[in-house]
């Protein structure tokens, strides 16, 4: 989906080796195999062996006397397919009803490992956090918003960064859910909030914890925001935030609160 293009680009700013690996392995659509374009046609026109002895794959005569044979063959194939899926009300070995069977995350994602699914899930809130931190940091610095006595930029940064990160994160999640469901509007906004609120919170816990650690413990409040060192420290904080966001994303996806994204 289109929204993943900026998601991968933004996350590459701080998570580039993992982002590159995830994109190359699971972020690109698979290359079509040779002759794959002809498969849908063959699927819609299955081969038949008519009474007249026509070869397999040739069109059968729908006006002749083979109609009953074709219909019975189609009915038989449909019955076989239904038998494989399981009858409604029956339970498979995983305890799911045959008619309402819901595959696990790896099955829904075509066998993609859970690690990759979680990484992509964290990248959604990661993209929002990165953009929110960039906008929020420069806004606080430009307005010299101080909180506390003596006045500190850090406390204002926490508030403003989180507000912008939350807004951007919900936007990324919204445009991930909407294409999958084919729906738009307030209902999808609520779903985006449920899917990304905890994820964003845990990401920012890791980032904000590191921001406090390097500002207070390492540089004793002397590191200015408009320096290369500051933003290198912010990159480390975002990397830490990614990993504090992994457990909650695993829980959200495992419990189907957050849908696996492409």
TrEMBL record:
Q: Which UniProt keywords apply?
A: Membrane, Transmembrane, Transmembrane helix
Ranges of residues in domain DUF4396: 117-258
TM regions (residue ranges):
6-26, 115-135, 155-177, 198-218, 230-253
Pfam families in the cross-refs: DUF4396
Bias (Basic and acidic residues) occurs at 82-110
The record's region (Disordered) falls at 32-110
Q: Which InterPro entries match?
A: DUF4396
Answer whether the UniProt record assigns the keyword ATP-binding to this protein: no
Q: What is this protein called?
A: DUF4396 domain-containing protein
Species of the source: Lithohypha guttulata
Taxonomy, top ranks, is:
Eukaryota, Fungi, Dikarya, Ascomycota, Pezizomycotina
